[in-house]
Amino acid sequence: MKILHIFKNTNKKFYKPYIEFINKNFILKDHKFMIEVYNNSVSIDKISNVEYIRKKDYFKLILKMYKADKIILHSLMSPRIMILLFLQPWFLKKCYWVVWGADLYYYKEPRMSLRKKIHESMRKLVIKNMGNVCTLVKGDYDLAKKWYGVKGGYFKAAYVSDKGIKSRNKIISNLNYLSLKNDKVRVIVGNSATPTNNHIEVFNILKKFKDENIEIVCPLSYGDMKYAKRIKDYGYSLFKNKLISLDTFMDMEDYMLYLSKIDIGIFNNNRQQGMGNIFSMLHLGKKVYIRNDTTMWEEIIKYRQLVVFDIKEIEKMDFERFKQLDTIIAKENMRKCKESSNSNHAKEIWTKIF
Fold first, then answer.
1. Which contacts (CB < 8 Å, 24+ apart) does range 174-182 have?
2. Where in the chain is the domain with CATH 3.40.50.2000?
3. Contacts of residue 237, Cβ cutoff 8 Å, sequence gap at least 6
4. What would the CATH number be for the domain defined by 162-341?
5. pLDDT confidence of 147, banded at 50, 70, 90?
């Protein structure tokens, strides 16, 4: 075994497409996937080359880490893996930490309890000595150096879903969504039921449009369900039946079809998050608003040279300007997204890491 991949079983929507992509595009025997399962009641899928780690299996995991040439840590949110790396720092030189967002921005979380302070102290040592760091946006690596003193090498990372790519391409080829006009302007807000989406701030910005022919869609099928309820209650109080809550998880093809019928995406995430949703919307020729104070803004504007809009500008806009998107801009975004959003491009990126 050359490469060991470690995931936390938070949601299979994140790891299943990636494992399928690796098994399809690389030599099967060179890769092994181990996924942490904390809850015995969690349903697991039988996927080629995958083992699930429960409490009794960590010794087996350690043995595989010794045997592996490279260890790919898909996110660093697992307390058990963090402790394991802290106690066995010799693994770090062959580790590649793929930053997902929350694992880096945990640095900004308040730590009132002694337990959390100890945990962050361990994280600082582990991250500082991490052999390699892989990020979806370059700015996250810069933050890792600033916050944790990272000394390891840098690699670009990318997650793709073959089903997502095929679904988007099929939608674009079958229908001209640039000319599709909905009866109402449909706006998707955020990507999940997590506070970092800052839904309430967006609702307060959009409430001036509540009497327009508008529909506000919020994907809330995963994350913090208490937060989801609070968002729905507040959204309904402002927009009544114009607020649509997506409470059921959709498969990739259905979700891409749903996004194709959305006009505008607003992603008020205060950190790197929701990149799949953002790029899917741009690939489908939609207007996208994000914050200008995140690493995503620089990645999208400077490195990808795509056109997105600043959320703060909505406050100055009337409804016509808010919903308007130049066709030339939309088509250029679609072209650039198509060039970078494919399996061959992702394969090149991961080949450099492997």
1. 175/260, 177/260, 177/284, 177/285, 178/285, 178/327, 178/330, 178/331, 180/261, 182/261, 182/263
2. 3-160+344-353, 162-341
3. none
4. 3.40.50.2000
5. very high
Cβ count within 10 A of residue 329: 15
Q: Determine the 3-state secondary structure of 45 from DSSP.
A: coil
Query: Per the structure block, which two tokens stand in for 77?
Result: 């949110």
Asked which of 50-54, 290-294, 307-311 is least confident by mean pLDDT, the reply is: 50-54
Strand positions, DSSP E, 114-172:
132-135, 153-156
Quote the CA–CA distance of 49 and 28 in Å, as a whole number. 8
How far apart (Å, rounded) are the C-alpha atoms in residues 326 and 330? Answer: 6
Cα separation, 27 vs 285, in Å, equals 35
In this prediction, residue 195 carries a pLDDT of 94
- pLDDT bin (cut points 50, 70, 90) of residue 72 is very high
Strand partners, 193: 223
pTM of the model: 0.85
pLDDT tens digits along 222-273: 889 999 999 999 999 999 999 999 998 888 888 888 998 999 999 999 999 9
Taking all residues of the chain, what is their mean pLDDT, rounded to a whole number?
89
pLDDT of residue 87: 95
Neighbours of 215 (CB within 10 A): 18
Residue listed under structure tokens 């997650």: 159
Quick one: fold of 3-160+344-353? Rossmann fold (3.40.50)
C-alpha to C-alpha distance for 256 and 253, rounded to whole angstroms:
5
Segments of the chain assigned E as strands: 3-8, 31-36, 50-53, 70-74, 95-98, 132-135, 153-156, 185-189, 214-219, 243-246, 264-267, 287-290, 309-310
Token pair belonging to 34: 């181990």
Give the pLDDT confidence score for residue 150 in this predicted structure: 95
What region, left, alpha or beta, does residue 204 occupy, with left being phi > 0 and alpha being psi -120 to 50 degrees? alpha
